[in-house]
Design a protein that fits this description.
The chain is an alpha/beta fold. The protein has two domains: 23-73; 83-245, Cation efflux protein, cytoplasmic domain (Alpha-Beta Plaits), CATH 3.30.70. The protein has helices spanning 23-28, 40-73, 83-95, 130-147, 171-185, 219-236, and strands spanning 100-105, 109-112, 115-124, 152-159, 163-167, 190-197, 209-215, 241-245. Strand 7 (209-215), helix 6 and strand 8 form a beta-alpha-beta unit. Helix 4 runs antiparallel to helix 5 and helix 5 runs antiparallel to helix 6. The longest helix has 34 residues, at 40-73. It is elongated and about 105 Å long. The N and C termini lie far apart (105 Å).
């Protein structure tokens, strides 16, 4: 079989016409002429076009990937959590609040393959009024909600002096912690209250809450304080852990 060129009966337009049919024409009839072999120049040109196409496609893909990863790193999406960035966003917002004296970050805690919990301690001026403290706690909650996302949950403990309040993105739970802490602080013999979560890490589940009251009471007086604190705490957070400790100083 020859491959010099197509036969005249079915040759493609633009190819040199041969007056004599080739082997395929003779064997199978008109229109079946063999396809001519590309010249080296044609093969080089085709390879060049394919290479240029691959380069362009790779460039477009690289731009898309850079855009996606850049967006994710700024807190958009849910593929690559950045707990440090979330802490930075929360810390920046917290430091701008009136009455906030400092923000201290804890190490991020990985809770699953692509999720983290982060926690900060926010020191608030003890000279603020109750209304001002309430406003600061609510602003911290809003900041935690804004900074959360992309696989990261942001929590904080607001150190108000005698009271330490767990702050989470959940408005209702945060308000319950503050209200309960004030109720417990009003119990005779109590000099301070911490109302947040247990050693298992930040959580809004009622049974995961941990309440600690500071008291100098001993014996029966201590038992009475703990019993009263437990009664009030269980009414708000069923299953919560209640304990007592002596003041640090």
């Amino acid at each position: 079989m020859t491959v010099d060129g197509p036969g005249g009966g079915g040759a493609r337009p633009g190819w040199p016409q041969s007056p004599d049919p080739d082997d395929l024409d003779r064997a199978f009839g008109p229109g079946t002429a063999s396809v001519p072999v590309r010249t080296p120049r044609q093969r080089v040109r085709r390879s060049a076009l394919v290479g240029v196409g691959v380069i362009i496609a790779a460039g477009v893909l690289a731009v898309v990937l850079v855009t996606i990863i850049g967006s994710v790193q700024n807190g958009v999406g849910g593929v690559f959590p950045r707990p440090d960035a979330a802490l930075d966003r929360f810390g920046s917002a917290a430091r701008d609040l009136d009455g906030v004296e400092g923000v201290r970050d804890s190490e991020p805690k990985k809770t699953s393959f692509a999720s983290y919990d982060v926690e900060s301690t926010v020191t608030v001026s003890p000279t603020l009024s109750d209304e001002e403290r309430t406003a600061v706690v609510d602003d911290l909650r809003a900041a935690a909600k804004t900074a959360s996302g992309n696989g990261v949950r942001v929590f904080a403990v607001a150190d108000l002096g005698a009271l330490e309040i767990g702050v989470s993105p959940d408005e209702r739970t945060t308000e319950q912690r503050l209200t309960l802490a004030r109720q417990l602080d009003a119990i005779g013999g109590v000099s301070g209250v911490r109302c947040s979560w247990g050693d298992g890490g930040p959580s809004d589940e009622p049974a995961d809450q941990a309440i600690t009251v500071e008291t100098i009471g001993r014996g029966a007086a201590l038992d009475a304080v703990v019993a009263k604190a437990t009664q009030e705490a269980q009414a708000v957070f069923p299953g919560a852990t209640v304990s007592a400790e002596r003041p640090a100083s």
